[in-house]
Design brief:
alpha/beta; Hemocyanin, N-terminal domain; Rossmann fold; five-stranded parallel β-sheet; 14 strands; 44% helix
Length: 551
């Protein structure tokens, strides 16, 4: 008998292909038919038995980085089981395959590197980028997550080792958004690194030279985008962890030319807006009644501010009125109109100084505590990557301004968070409306268990991926993210809010993603952006294309 597997492969080649390998779950007839006799132990396992054995081994490993490495190996040998385990318990496993553990993995990526899980397009590949893309074994790529590694989470320039972020993001496209893994491709643009420690590290896997800049950098990225258009004409690009000075530029340069978005800007904006909508609704107020102070005025903070401004227009405010509700705090203090060092983005939110700030010597707007009091902030959003910046004095100042202050330390990973959940609740006597970018454990406060909400972009970008797969929009405008935010916020009940929950529980995130994806798809059709024929039942269609890891 010389029957081929549906993949066209046979024998050991099947076992080496993670898309088709079932390991010990191949039954005896399949082993004979596909040339697997003798290549596997005698036992025939059920899928559940395989999962139990793997989970027991994961639990035995001493550190989360060890578990990350094991998951990497599992993804490379048995794709179905890898995703089945992640889907089974996202609360337990997402922090291992993504934030916060992925940050540590990127820092040590040269030491834990096993085999290629994506493409490394370097400065040495100029003139041959399309060839690089064609070397990828899958020929129908729909989604690329690409980074140049310059601003990995809050950890800075990690160069080519930022590949871990692209891999992790796409794992969540599938785990949470049910996007088929074979249509996704992680890429790092290895344009060098300015991290001298990496350049001197004998285990660094990237080009050990300083980063391309200016026109050289722009032409490099242009060749990359042109190659994607040529090789994968139906592909969407997600720009990931680019430094602020490139992130906005690349988004604006390419968003109308090719379906693309920047998760650090638009995804963060959407999840931030969703948390704000959910929080103010829960306390019986509106987003237009709040005064917002952003600690960190980079691309992430500005993205939330811009989307929040758009949301306030729906509540009857003008753009000018909405922006006056928003204040920025950067490395030099409160952003005001009196400052002469502001870029165009910051100028939109540069207002005349708060009343009394120039005459009241106790109000120092170069400190966060002083700024909180000066503007009477009711919502404080951190995107600074400055750990412990939300001190007790800052948070108590927020509590003095409003009965239920919104405290969002959104910086990643956990080590960069502006405060912990326990600090926010303790210093506001339990009144805080809290969400963080990375997870914090449950804790006891005033006789009850509090499970802190996590405002992670995972609520948005996987759903966006599934929506794009369903509708194939020509572009992905900011309003698509606004629709996603409102849909996400609507999933939180008043009863959940009273328990401190402002995002859907992570153990139900796959169901939440299907609902959010459906709302985004409906927007694409309403806006005339979808290029696919509209199905009779959008929700049913979205569910029908959701990928499941089956043998």
């Amino acid at each position: 008998m010389n029957t081929s597997h549906p993949s066209g492969k046979r024998g050991i080649d099947i076992l080496r292909d993670p898309r088709w390998n079932r390991g010990t779950a191949f039954n005896r007839e399949e082993r004979a038919e596909y040339g697997l006799l003798g290549l596997l132990p005698d036992i025939v396992s059920t899928r559940e038995g395989q999962m139990a054995r793997i989970e027991a081994h994961i639990d035995s490993l001493p550190t989360n980085l060890d578990k990350y490495v094991y998951f990497t190996d599992l993804q490379e040998r048995n794709q179905a089981i890898y995703y089945r385990i992640l889907m089974k318990d996202p609360v337990k496993y997402m922090p291992i395959v993504y934030t916060p553990t992925v940050g540590e993995a990127c820092q040590t990526f040269g030491r834990i590197y096993r085999r290629p899980q994506g493409l490394y397009i370097s400065v040495r590949h100029r003139g041959r980028m399309a060839q690089c893309l064609r070397n990828w074994p899958e020929k129908d790529v729909k989604f690329i997550v690409v980074t140049d590694g310059e601003r990995i989470l809050g950890l800075g320039d990690l160069g080519a080792q930022g590949m871990g972020i692209s891999i992790g993001k796409l794992a969540l496209y599938t785990t949470v958004g049910s996007v088929p893994p074979h249509v996704t491709l992680p890429i790092v643009l290895d344009v060098g690194t300015n991290n001298t420690d990496l350049m001197e590290d004998p285990f660094y896997i990237g080009v050990p030279q300083r980063r391309l800049e200016g026109d050289d950098y722009a032409s490099f990225v242009e060749e990359f985008v042109t190659a994607v258009e040529e090789v994968y004409p139906d592909c969407t690009i997600q720009w990931e962890d680019f430094a602020n000075h490139n992130a906005v530029t690349l988004l604006e340069r390419y968003r109308e030319r090719i379906p693309s978005f920047n998760d650090d800007i638009q995804g963060t904006a959407a999840v931030g807006l969703a948390g704000i909508i959910s929080g103010v609704r829960g306390k019986g107020e509106s987003i237009a009644e709040q005064t917002y102070l952003f600690y960190g005025a980079g691309s992430a903070g500005m993205g939330i501010a811009d989307l929040l401004t758009t949301a306030m227009l729906k509540e009857g405010l003008t753009a000018e009125e909405a922006r006056k509700r928003i204040w920025l705090f950067d490395s030099k203090g409160l952003v005001t109109a009196a400052r002469t060092d502001l870029g165009e983005q910051k100028q939109r939110y540069a207002h005349d100084g708060p009343d009394g700030m120039t005459t009241n010597s106790t109000t120092d707007i170069t400190t966060l505590e002083g700024a909180v009091r000066a503007v009477s902030a009711t919502a404080l959003i951190g995107t600074s990557t400055m750990p412990k910046a939300f001190t007790q004095e800052v948070i108590e100042g927020m509590a003095a301004n409003t009965a239920r202050p919104i405290i969002f330390p959104f910086s990643n990973p956990t080590s960069k968070s502006e405060c912990t959940a326990e600090e926010a609740y303790t210093w506001t006597n339990g009144a805080a409306i809290f969400a963080s970018g990375s997870p914090f454990p449950s804790f006891e406060y005033a006789g009850k268990t509090i499970t802190p909400s996590q405002g992670n972009n995972v609520y948005i970008f996987p759903a966006m991926g599934l929506a794009v797969l369903a509708a194939k929009p020509s572009t992905i405008p900011d309003r698509a993210f606004s629709r996603a935010a409102r849909s996400l916020a609507a999933l939180v009940s008043q009863e959940q809010f009273e328990r401190g929950i402002i995002f859907p529980p992570l153990d139900r995130i796959r169901e939440a993603s299907l609902i959010v994806a459906t709302a985004i798809v409906e927007y694409f059709y309403e806006a005339g952006l979808a290029t696919m024929p509209k199905p009779d039942d959008v929700a049913e269609y979205v569910r029908s294309i959701a990928w499941e890891p089956e043998y």
